[in-house]
Amino acid sequence: MTQRITIDPITRLEGHGKIEIFLTPEGDVANTYFQIPELRGFERFCVGRPVEEMPLLTNRICGVCPEAHHMAAAKAADAVYHVNPPRTAKMLRELLYSAFYVTDHATHFYALGGPDFVMGPDAPVAERNILGVIHKVGLEIGGKVIAARKAGHTVVEIIGGRKVHPCTSIPGGMTKGITEDQRKEILEMGKWAVEFGQFSLKIFNDIVLGNKAYVDLILGDIYTHRTYYMGTVDENNHVNFYDGKVRVVDPDGKEFVKYSPNEYTQHIAEHVEPWTYLKFPYLKNVGWKGFTDGKDSGVYMATPLSRLNAADGMATPLAQAEYERFYGTLGGKPVHQRLATHWARLIELLYAAERWVELASDPEVASPNFHTVPTATPTEGVGIVEAPRGTLTHHYTTDERGVLTKVNLIVGTTNNYAPISMSINKAATSLIKKGTVVTEPMLNMVEMAFRAYDPCFGCATHSLPGQMPLEITIRNSDGEVMEMLKRG
Amino acid sequence: MKTIVIGLGNPILGDDGVGWKVAQEVQRVVETDARYFMPIRPLGTKTVQHVSPIEVDCVALGGLSLMERMVGYQRAILVDSMETGQNPIGSVKVFALEELPNPSASHSTAAHDTSLLTALEVGRKMKLNVPDSVTVVAIEAKNVYDFSEELSPAVAEAVPVAYEAVMNLLKSPEGVI
């Protein structure tokens, strides 16, 4: 008799979903399915609206990374209007975006991914959260996390016009600039953020890298896949979150392709499976070979780890030093171990903080030259940014008045649907064997495979800041439910 | 006592936007009706101003961010859609946050970071001035998967009911009926 396991919910993730684990009559894992209900009708909702509404509308898709949608939408709208925003506008956008990255990555590490390491993967559920982290590491850490979030929110509000859901990016640049005093205020907060980034890496170093069991867990085969890696790079092939070309490296770390945003349809295709509404993007020029890794499979990953793998380095000195230590410690590039994503995320946090300081140090960011009035007839455009959870692509087509006729989005997490499914399968297959009793810590270790990606199906599917009611169900070969994990 | 009324949800996702619609109705009244105003003399001034001690906001937040939005208020009232599948569509429930029947059924839990209850506890540990009392007014919703600015009819009919529930809470000092 086969068993089936359902995990519900994956307690620290966004959106809705379900993991189903089917067991063989002997009790080994036969197959796993990761399913997400789809949000419907976004394109229909947008068609007929002016394209300049998109930076406001799309940041309503998701409560977690509205800043990313705001940026991708603004860049796509620039492209639709064939307008190149002035340098100050680009700096303001990237500055806002860098501050957002610091808060988002910090929240993930301390509230979402970190508890598995700080408290331990098998700690009681009630302690495996941010409160547990504060209790164990000290009150000071909670204060720092709250302060980092506050600094990031303040920058978003100063530049973006309001907290969380910015509203100042329009085709051709920004609706407003910042004053010299505001620039100085932002700069001071950025300097603090750099220290916070270093502090966070030190915690990771002491608690995770200082514990052999965790290092073995990270380097173990359970959480390893040799796939292609995607990330946006600048002209020096350094990681950039706001602008550049999308670079993909193969499982050996060699550049496979580097493309401009408007070329994405030549490189990315989407595979459909009958058991889920969400599509699986893959590299068109490698092809879909199923849920498998290796050079012949078009499966790619787009996460902090993949951005580091896809780049030649970081554009700022402290982050570059950490980048070198990362690859030095983990045995060279690329790193295939998914749990190393948590470390990569903190290196990105430090880079974002340094970039924040860099941009706020340049007096031109406070220049009044923050908008170029578009004069060309609008047509079609693609905007790409790196969302914290992966490469985010917005593609709009309009009529000659700038009214939308077609909208296509590939959101951050969707890129990772195939590799997440593979990681869940591998973790479940490695951990659940015939004769073993399935325990909560075991299922949490399946969830950890998933959590490393920081998946947010908020925009891929359900756009709420709500909990992800994700079940893990174990079913037998007859499809009967043997066990169901529910939390919350 | 400073109170904040927060409409939660996504205004472009059908019934998910019901919390915003209710909160906007509340806002229209408490910000204009002098009966809700209180005499307040700001520190360092001699002039007494008549302002509402009730603030209303509409947000799409959860967890830590939602907790951060509540800092500085002694009482919070959340208006939110809820999908329990156990109540008729459009039914309105009022309860204390601690009694939330199913944390995964409403927005107050942001699974990206932590639940609102845990976030509030973090806030208290950090000595942030977060509310002692959080009351939830929840409306059973139906269509939260299709992009739309419209509510389904049964949920639209619940807007005045939920509005009354919030106004009753604002009259009671404890914040719970």
Overview of this protein structure:
- The complex is a heterodimer of chains A (488) and B (177).
- Chain A has 15 helices and 16 strands.
- By secondary structure, chain A is α+β, with helices and mostly antiparallel strands.
- The model of chain A is unreliable at 8-15 and 460-469 (pLDDT under 50).
- In chain A, a hairpin with a 5-residue loop joins strand 7 and strand 8 (255-259).
- In chain A, strands 1, 2, 15 and 16 form a 4-stranded mixed beta sheet that branches. In chain A, strands 8-7-6-11 form a 4-stranded mixed beta sheet, covered by helices on one side. Chain A has a 3-stranded antiparallel beta sheet with strand order 12-13-14.
- Chain A folds into 3 domains: 3-37 and 436-486, no CATH class; 84-222 and 337-372, Cytochrome-c3 Hydrogenase, chain B (Orthogonal Bundle), CATH 1.10.645.10; 225-336, no CATH class.
- Chain A has helices at residues 42-46, 54-57, 66-80, 87-118, 130-137, 139-160, 180-209, 212-219, 264-267, 304-310, 317-330, 341-361, 417-431, 440-451, 457-460, and strands spanning 3-8, 18-23, 29-35, 169-170, 173-174, 228-233, 245-249, 255-259, 268-271, 280-283, 300-301, 380-387, 390-398, 404-410, 471-476, 481-486.
- Chain B is an alpha/beta fold and 177 residues long.
- Chain B has a single domain, classed as HybD-like (Rossmann fold, 3-Layer(aba) Sandwich).
- In chain B, 28% of the residues lie in helices and 22% in strands.
- Chain B is built from 4 helices and 7 strands; from the N terminus they run βαβββαββαβα.
- In chain B, strands 4-1-5-7-6 form a 5-stranded mixed beta sheet, covered by helices on one side. In chain B, strands 2-3 form a two-stranded antiparallel sheet.
- In chain B, helix 1 crosses helix 4 (153-171) and helix 2 crosses helix 3.
- Chain B is globular and about 50 Å long.
- The A-B interface holds A 9-15, 37-42, 44-45, 57, 60, 63-64, 66, 107-108, 111-112, 129-131, 134, 139, 142-143, 146, 149-150, 153, 164-165, 456, 458, 462-469, 488 and B 8-13, 16, 59-66, 68, 102-107, 109-115, 118-119, 121-123, 125-126, 128, 144-148.
